[in-house]
Amino acid sequence: MITNGLLMIAVVCGLAAILLVLDKTAGWKFFRYVPAVVLMYLLCAALNSAGLFGTEDATREPLKNLKDFALPAMIFLLLLGCDLRRILSLGPKLLLTYAVTSLSLLVGIVVAFLAFRAALDPEAWKALAALLGSWTGGSANMAAVQDILQAPENIFGYALITDTIVYSLWLMIVFSSVMFSDRFNRFTRADTSYLNAHMGAAEHDDRPITVPAVIGLILGSLLIAWGAITVGEAMPEVGEVMNSTAWTILLVSVLGLIAAQTPLGRIPGSQQIATVLLFVVIGQIASGSDFSALTEAPVYLVAGVTVLVVHAVIMLIYAKLTRTELFSVAVASVANVGGIASAPVVAGAFNRQLVPVGVLFALIGSLMGTWIGLLGGQIMSGL
């Protein structure tokens, strides 16, 4: 059993390093079906369930303190790539489609919560809010919502498993829909001409990551995280969700957006460092999970399917009423539910020249996912 806090940090960081290297270099098909970040959760939870991690506060406190700094630093670094000027260039029709997509997922999560409330844990709304954060943003937003609402680690595990399994099924459905694009567009009587203005080659960042850039990003993001934590702790609590952690995330989000509009947003390496920090955050959360409590997982899986059924119905009605083509609906859906990893791929399946739309949709999710998740949590906590 590990009873040294620093050794526990070393084990979690070591697992993160191994999985990140394997994910990027091994080329295993396994990671297509079980994302490395999910595997990170499962491995750390398995180690805790096996009794490897000590239960004393002195053992767990150092890793928790590291996570408290890693989370806001990660959010800041992720938003360094969020260029608001490029997002606004999408135009009103695409932005409206994205907004309705996020709203439909919010409605879906509330419907699922009410439908399965009797079978769920009293604090299940926190896990569902974290799931909503992921399905309107990504894993980083999911971790942020979990930390703000303090969703129990075991219940958060249900949300993470649901996220992985249901999302994978949804991605297959969306990919399969490409062949029905013409039929769908005839059904909605969509005019696709406005998409011509958004066609262009996908942008690739080929700038080399340098040692000074890495050091500057790490130290700078940690300094900003410390400042935001200090200010956040001095702010008043508002409702169920606006606590000191929420204020901290809000502050680093604003600072990240401001920095993204400056030359700082073009420093290479921010997304890669943020990914490393995400693995540390997920590892800390998983280190408090116990697989013996996974008996409720099927209920969450059914709830997750319910969310996407409601989402699909709303989007179908929206597309018919507004004469929207399948491309916008499908890419907006996957950008919400899947994030940056899948939105450009789905966009490319429709038209390779429209890949930038998928990228920009995913960036919107990185910005908004946490706050949509918290909004859903606030609604569910009051029901």
Protein described:
It comes from Micrococcus cohnii. Keywords: Membrane, Transmembrane, Transmembrane helix. InterPro entries: DUF819. Pfam families: DUF819. The protein contains 17 helices and no strands. The longest helix has 27 residues. Helix 4 runs parallel beside helix 12, helix 7 packs parallel to helix 9 and helix 8 packs parallel to helix 17. It is globular and about 65 Å long. The chain is mostly helical. The protein has one domain. The mean pLDDT is 83.
Summary tags:
DUF819; membrane; 17 helices; single chain; 383 residues; Putative membrane protein; mainly alpha; transmembrane
Summarize the structure.
With 383 residues, this protein is mainly α.
- Any low-confidence stretches, pLDDT <50, length ≥5? none
- Which percent range fits the helix content? over 70%
Q: Main beta sheet: strand number and arrangement? A: none
- Average pLDDT, rounded to a whole number, is 83
Radius of gyration from the alpha-carbon trace, in angstroms: 20 Å
Shape: globular
Number of helices: 17
Q: What amount of the residues lies in strands?
A: under 5%
Secondary-structure element string = HHHHHHHHHHHHHHHHH
Task: Find the structural class using helix and strand composition.
Answer: mainly alpha
Roughly how many Å apart are the termini? Answer: 42 Å
Q: Could you tell me the number of beta strands?
A: 0
Into how many domains do the coordinates divide?
1
Protein name: Putative membrane protein
Pfam families: DUF819
InterPro entries: DUF819 (IPR008537)
Organism: Micrococcus cohnii
